[in-house]
Structures are given as C-alpha cells and as structure tokens.
C-alpha cells in the first residue's frame, strides 16, 4: 500500500471521494432504488474535473441495476454538493456513476474454468 504522501493528487482525491460518496449514498439518499448499492472504486481525471464512480448493486437483477444507476445519476448533483461541503473542496469534480463489471467478469471466468476442468479440457500443472 502506498503512503498517502506518495500518491498523486488525483489518487488522493479519489480515495477521499470513495469514502465520502459511500457515506452519502449509503446513509443520506433515501431513494429505495439505491439501498443495495455499494461504491467499489473511484477514478479522478488528471485535471480533477471528472470522477468516475464504480458501483455494484448487490443481488440485483439487470432491471434493478439499471434503475439504481438512473437514480444515482439523478442524485449526482446532490452527492457532488455534499462531497464538496464535507471535504471542504472549492471545486468538486462532476460525478459519473458507472456499473462495475469486474466482479461479474471474474465470476464468469471462474465459471468457464470450472466447466473446462470438469470436461477435462484444462489441467493445472504444478511446475
């Protein structure tokens, strides 16, 4: 893990934003469509103007995920204002909520590997 002073400013801001946005989405938004939303990562552009917030809807169907992302996009201005106030930022980045597919992709790869090994198409070597 990098020490805080070794990180570049966009990376430091991304970490602070992740914590703060998680708090705002988890505890301040009262929309039932975002109850199962978890913030997994935040990336900030080098010019600090835009932040991409990766979210996962726990146990949600495709329709629930779409509705949650729509609700988050509608709440983005409020979230940005709260983040700016809570972190004492003069200029808060524009927030863009995006579905995090990393866990889904990892599960799919795991499933394919299991299927291949069950069929005998894949052998693990211990070399």
How would you explain this protein's 3D organization?
With 127 residues, the chain is α+β, with helices and mostly antiparallel strands. It has a single domain (4-119), classed as GMP Synthetase, Chain A, domain 3, CATH 3.30.300. It is 50% helix and 17% strand. The protein contains 3 helices and 3 strands. It has helices at residues 9-28, 62-86, 102-119, and strands spanning 37-44, 50-57, 94-99. It has a 3-stranded mixed β-sheet with strand order 1-2-3, with helices on one face. β2, α2 and β3 (94-99) form a beta-alpha-beta unit. α1 crosses α2. The longest helix is centred in the middle third of the chain and has 25 residues, at 62-86. It is globular and about 60 Å long. 20% of the residues are buried. The model has no long low-confidence stretch (mean pLDDT 85).
Can you count the beta strands?
3
Hey, roughly how much beta strand do the residues contain?
15-25%
As for the number of domains, it is 1
Unreliable stretches (pLDDT < 50, length at least 5) are: none
Radius of gyration based on Cα positions: 18 Å
Q: Helix proportion of residues, in percent?
A: 40-55%
The global form is globular
For the termini, the CA-CA separation is: 30 Å
Side-by-side strand order of the widest sheet: 1-2-3
**Largest pleated sheet:** 3 strands, mixed
Instruction: Identify the CATH class.
Output: Alpha Beta
């Amino acid at each position: 893990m990098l020490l805080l002073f070794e990180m570049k400013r966009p990376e430091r801001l991304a970490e602070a934003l992740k914590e703060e946005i998680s708090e705002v989405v988890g505890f301040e938004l009262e929309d039932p469509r975002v109850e199962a939303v978890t913030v997994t990562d935040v990336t900030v552009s080098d010019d600090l103007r835009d932040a991409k917030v990766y979210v996962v809807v726990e146990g949600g169907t495709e329709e629930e995920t779409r509705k949650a992302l729509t609700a988050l996009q509608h709440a983005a201005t409020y979230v940005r204002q709260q983040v700016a106030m809570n972190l004492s930022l003069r200029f808060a980045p524009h927030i863009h909520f995006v579905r995090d597919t990393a866990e889904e992709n990892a599960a799919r790869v795991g499933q394919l590997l299991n299927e291949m090994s069950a069929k005998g198409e894949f052998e693990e070597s211990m070399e």
